[in-house]
Fold each of these.
Amino acid sequence: MKKIEAIIRKSKFDDVKKALHEIEVNFFSYWDVTGVGNEKQGHVYRGISYSTADIQRRYLVIVISDEFLERTLNAIFDSARTGNVGDGKIFVSDMLNAYRIRTGENGHAGIN
Amino acid sequence: MDAGLFTANNVWMMICTALVFFMHTGFAFLEIGLTRQKNTINILFKNIFIITVGLLMYYIGGFNLMYPGFEEGSMGILDFAGFGIAAPENGMTAEYADGGYTWWTDFLFQGMFAATAATIVSGAVAERIKLGPFMIFTVLYVGLVYPIVGSWQWGGGFLSTLGGENGGFYDFAGSTLVHSVGGWGALVAIYLLGARIGKFGEGGKAQAIPGHSIPMATAGVLILWLGWFGFNGGSVLSADPATTSLVLVTTCLAAAAGGIGAFTLSSLLYKNYDLTMFLNGILGGLVGITAGADLMSPNEAVVIGLIAGVIIVLGVALIDKLKLDDPVGAVAVHLICGMWGTLAVGIFGAKAGMDQLIYQLAGIGAAGAFCVLFAFLILFTLKKTVGIRVPKEEELEGLDIHEHGMDAYADFRMNQH
């Protein structure tokens, strides 16, 4: 099993969600995060321009079986990319196990 | 006078009194909106203190200091009609004040005005002033400074008779007597207090410290605009149909023009649609029309408002340039636009003329000198004795938790900065 963590643009969330559903990755969690990076957003307040490096992004966590890895990555690449700086990152790690709380099932059965 | 007309007049004046009272909600919303959430309770505490203690001070002596009934031949600078309030014999009849209102209404309407002057200061010194010394300042400023300056004009003192037969200084609803009085106090206070930590960065460059609730600030400005219906409308001192309706028209047109003026200039200068400038522009227009709301044609009101809006944008930048820190723009709105509105009486409208312009300058100068002197005296003494600024740690962590032991939004914390 693999865990995919993807940091994407908020504006791309709906596209990514749709792409994941299309390859039958139907379950995942997400939350809104603030990060720091190279991108700067110009702000103006009462005539004073200032820049904030705080970047608002959405953080997705998806746990999948090994054989889903490649198509999941491709789905995210295709749906989250704009080609501009700041499209985000994907991290992949091994997941030891997964349990479904209601039934106690684990492994592949625990995530689907 | 017909009893029905007397009653109608008095009802209108009581409505105006209530509207001016409501302006304190507007001030509170505007001030907390344009500052950071960690200082919200502190700002609200000051605002509530001002309206309560302001009213009591006005009852104790303020009203009789402002309307002492200067004797014929006196200098008209300082007199006092005694502590407390008691209606004169004819106070509840149409003989009092030409039947415009009763004596009680007179007291309460004027009392609502008094607190406004200190509220103006409260916004400018937000986020760093120590509460105790601010309360002492408020008591003295509302209790003494505001009524004394007011007595020079509205109490029949020397400013009102500057030109002898030809009249004198003119300030319909208080561009100078209310707004500049508060504005001067604010200017002195932010000079003595210093800027908030982080306001001026390396090399002294002004930094933005964004307010935490722009919706709140917007509501505050719209409430203040509504309150001005009473502030200016009530300053007619009766429900006189022609004058009250003209005053409401000029007031609203100047507010609208002020907003448009500030919005246009700030968009051109900063290539950005800054709502807070738009809002300050509306207030600038309102303060600007206040001195001559009953003298202006609609066209003149629009011009006065537009210029006030331009002044706001330039004034806010000027304050930053001077290394002064005014989180809500109180000096630009109340002091600079207050002076502009006062001068406008000599430039536009029914009283325009060189003589009038000189009277207006004299009024601005007299009020300014007295307020600066007095505010400096109080605040400098406080600074050298008990101190007027909170410790650095308290300022960084927020005045709410240190001075009040509370969070303004206890269960809601998205972004503390």
Note: The two ends of chain B are 61 Å apart (CA to CA).
Amino acid sequence: MSDRKNVLLVDDDPDFVDAVKTLVEKDGYHVNVAYDGQEGLEKVAESKPDIVILDVMMPVMDGHGMCDQLKDNPDTANIPVILLTAVADHVSTSSYTHRDMLESQAEDYIPKPVEPAELLERIKHWL
Amino acid sequence: MPDCARVLIIDDEQVIRDGCERSLSGNGYSVSKAENGENGIQFLKADIFDVVLLDLMMPGIDGFEVLSWIREHHPSMPVVVITGFATVDKAVLAMKQGAFDFVGKPFTPDYIRIVVKRALEKRALQKETEKLKSEKALDLMTIIEEQSRLKTVFGCMMEAVLITNREGIVVHHNPAAVKVLQIETDPFIGKSLKQSISDQKLVKMVCEALEQAKHVTREFEPGTISRMYLRAHSSPVQTSEGTILGAVTVFEDITTHKMIDQQKSEFVAMVAHELRAPLASVEQMIYAMKAGCSTFEGTACEHLHTRMTARTKELLQLIANLLSLSRLESENIVFNLEAINGNTLLENIVEVLTPQAQNKNIALTLSPAEVDWTFNADFDHIRSAFINVMGNAVKYTPEGGQVEVKSKVSSGLVTIEISDTGIGIEKDSLPHIFDRFFRVKDKTTRLITGSGLGLSVVKKVVEAHNGFVDVVSEHGAGTTFSLSFPLASNSISSNQTQNMSSK
């Protein structure tokens, strides 16, 4: 388990999570999941991932919210974050509305749905 | 000279009377004779005459009295006084009192004819003048009325109107202008537009209309020009030769339009998002299938396949709901109302949902009302509304729970209660459940997907049928939806088609 890299995947759609988990595990990673930003932060503390893949549109705490918290915390600031989303997400449930990619502290940004090859390539790149 | 001009001769001497008659009758005049003042006045009261020949010296009521009577009652009738020899001063007095002319006795037939003719000409001229005067008065009245009408319209219009001259000075405006526009100067009239309204875009717009002699339209956001969203139209005011005298600018309040546009855009964005998210997941699952099926066991593929089918079905349901909602909100919807037996309807729907309930080991029961009840409804719409509510009850109730459907009839109303022992609705979420696309999203509802439109449609349908919906819920304990409808009166037969407007 020690030489397998740890990926944390956070998205509110269970079907999406299952599909991406399948793809990423196939490439040899260990995947943990969470379904909203709050849960995601708890899982980060628990599992200490090497990389976090994060959907923007989620209830309770959205992707931008979770990303900001990770980057503001020196313990987690170095974990690369990849944001995933459909393009028009200005109707967010949390207080972070209409954030530009440019304002975000995330390392990367991929639109949904993600092509498997591209996702895996980006993960490899940022690790 | 009018044919049949009517002449009245008032003279006590028969010779004079007959003489006048002879002289005048032949010339197309009709002559009436009165032998004294009283008689003369009687004639005048009874008939219309064009000229009166009046002897001044008569017994009884004398000529002057008659004259003064005529001046009072027929001021425009010419009176020719007849005087005796050496009474010119009387004649002059009579003239001063309003007589038109005088003849001295004796007079020749020719002479009397000339005098009468002159009097009648004068009368005709007078009539002409009066006619023109009254026509002019009428025109003036019309103009004043017209002006008054325009003034009223101008004053009552909601749209602000400004009139500026060639130099950009405000020369006139209506009351609405003061209400709608932010005017910095007092007075407004007489000052240049630049001074009174600080929005430069407006000044530029009026200049453009003036200089280029064309209509200009611009929109203004709330700001230095007004609190409202405005659309302004400036038009040059030109003479028929093309000289530009100034410009008239009208301002429309488009605040409501803008609000509606904004709501529409937001709705479209929401719809796009709600359609895209599930499709993105389906596509993601297709990728996973391609990658995973060859490597993993059959069950992984089967699971993906099941989920993809479910999500796609849900998407189709979402689209159907969107269409329903759009149709319900349009003014032209036609409902096919028929008398529907309530107990039978509920039985059918419970039957449809039984497999779904059984899959989750949920006890789905129906307690029909003690009486048979009928209500007027559009079968398809009402059926979908019930399926929605009952479907939700089953969806949001965990394994082994219960869903109960009860109906009660009282005072012309039927109430159908759908109660479940499901996850319930939080107090904070309760006011929003009928909002479009609203779905409770937390740990307990994570695996439950839906369009968020079902209850919006239910509410619209129920209300369109003159019914109402009520919800009672406790988070963690369960929810009860109550749908109430007026019952059909016994005299209504089946298969009516009606136009109903949805609210």
Note: The domain at 6-126 of chain A is CATH 3.40.50.2300 (Rossmann fold).
